[in-house]
Design brief:
five-stranded mixed beta sheet; 152 residues; alpha/beta; 19% strand; 5 strands; 5 helices
Length: 152
């Protein structure tokens, strides 16, 4: 029996696990075509490796996807990320015109979508994607908890 193709969130979780193995906060992201489900970009956090505070998984995936499309807008694409995006990433998601955002674990401390500044709810936000939170939340939260437990 053939193994089924991994879901986009499973791919994002594998990127998060790879980030943890590199010593990065375990967050992973993938961008897929909203109609076909074809994978366009994947990334995990690389802030430590690149010495770049903007090298969050979402930012890297958006950069890869816009480069692949030769277009700064990703209007028909969906982003899957293992953690609720921060305000910086939420702004990039808005500017890229991502169609739909799926995220795993909620981030009460640093989130910018359902927590904190709630970027997409602000009157200055020009584009808000459809948002579905809590997808793969248990595994994504466990990855983060285990990572930070090991740091203490």
């Amino acid at each position: 029996m053939e193994k089924p193709e991994p879901t986009p969130m499973e791919l994002a979780l594998s990127q998060a696990k790879a980030a943890a193995e590199r010593g990065e906060v375990p967050v992973g992201a993938v961008i897929v075509d909203g109609d076909t489900g074809v994978l366009l970009a994947k990334a995990g956090n690389r802030t430590e490796e690149l010495n770049d505070p903007t090298a969050h998984a979402e930012m890297l995936a958006i950069r890869e996807a816009t480069k692949a499309q030769s277009n700064p807008r990703l209007e028909n694409f969906d982003l899957y990320v293992t953690l609720e995006p921060c305000a910086m990433c939420a702004a990039a998601i808005s500017f890229a015109r991502i169609r739909r955002l799926y995220f795993g674990a909620y981030d009460e401390k640093g989130g910018g979508v359902e927590h904190g500044g709630r970027f997409f709810s602000q009157p200055t936000c020009h584009h808000a994607p459809e948002v579905i939170g809590g997808m793969g939340e248990t595994e994504a939260a466990a990855l983060l908890k285990d990572f930070f437990k090991g740091k203490r």
